[in-house]
Amino acid sequence: MAEAGRRTRRRERTRDRAASESPKQRIKQSVWRHLRSPYPPLPLVSEDELEAIHTASLRILSEIGIDFLDDTARTILKQHGAEVRGGSERVRLDPEMVLEYVAKAPSEFTLHGGRPERDLTFGSNHVNFCCIASAPFCSDLEGGRRDGNYADFNNFCRLTQSANILHMFGGYPVEPIDLPPDTRHLDCHYSFLTLSDKVHHAYSLGRQRPSDAIDMLCIARGETRDSIAERPGMHSIINTSSPLRVDIPMLQGLMEMSAHGQAICVTPFTLSGAMSPVTIAGALAQQNAEALAVIAFTQMVRAGAPVIYGGFTSNVDMRSGAPAFGTPEYAKAALVGGQLARKYGLPYRSTNANASNAPDAQAAWESMMSLWPVILGHTNMVMHAAGWLEGGLTASFEKFVIDLELLQGMASFIEPLEISEASLAIDAIKDVGPGGHFFGTPHTLERYETAFYEPLLSDWRNFESWEEAGSLDATARANRLYRAMLDAYEAPKIDPAIDEELKAYMAKRRENPGIQQ
Fold first, then answer.
1. Which spans of this chain does the record mark as coiled coil (predicted)?
2. Per-residue pLDDT tens over the stretch 397-437
């Protein structure tokens, strides 16, 4: 009884201390910084094997071809030397022509944020983490799985702004289906521009949506369409409709974005065994063919337009046909995708993916399986880095925070290890001698506050202390932390005149959206 009473009092003191802290004090996240990997990229296949994939890809484009479903796109391709036959959507590309145009793409470029410290570099060994994008559902412990909506969309925007380890938006974190489909992009871009100052995304679903996004970006930045082309601040994902097809809305959006100097990430959706061959080598050959064809097309639209080589090859569950992510096959494909991007001198995109239906151990181990090749393969844009669940169908608030812990750990891992006279600590070892300890040495006292990575979510207390604090597992702690982050959120400052101009633009566009569904 006495012991139980002591535990109750200690538990109450713990709760009292937590209650007295401000939300910011309870959030021990890493500082905002740009990340670069000091390690050489890990090659999975030999140069000869990489060349074999490259050669197979060019054969696919010249012998089989790829369907470009948009008439204007085919006209541009034909004007630049592609083989386009009347009455057919099939386009065949000569290997030399493909490589000529791919070579026009920049090996490194910058996307500009709302303030200079938010500017991001893509290429070389730069690493940029994105929040989850394009989920139709969202979830948390209290509300469960639910349709995407604007309120949750905005909360993910606030969390992404607040999370120092996240550099940018990869798309709409969750689709706000409670807004009209022909104008919801206006509301979403308004949220991007007012709730955050980080680089954001425009969907390439026809010309009008990215055109509106460019106009709103110009208003927010005080730019013109000409100047924003030289200082791009947005990106868009172009997914091919694998196998070997690019649809009309994607192509129209690509042409609008590339023509105005905004970045395009070309990402084939090559699921091995379903939309690509059951062998990973064959799937990579198809991925590479589709990526090269569309990347070459961006340079026909505007030479020098920023573009990223996207890899998303994974496998399916051959028993059900469901996509599988965070698999050994996915990890291998991600590493080879990085090798291919480097071969062509292009920035690279990969993904933190998992197939779990809950923010549980499976979600964590599959994410780690995805993140290691992402980091070791010099991925420059890490899509869906925080919040992805259920194969991308659900944006999970708890998984968002769990991923922040994983990303912070990876960021700490790529910090160079200091080897110096001071870090080798010979004098400290001499002072302590055999059988002592280092807790109270001057060497430790000078460094203990910053010596080791401090976790955001992990609980390193012993069992008794953890039990007294409520026995919360990682998912429950993540739930509390995401709510604390929302409580601590601070919106970036925006000029009231700019805010009014954005609202006026939206109101005018709502009168006649000009978007056919």
1. none
2. 999 999 999 999 999 999 999 999 999 999 999 999 999 99
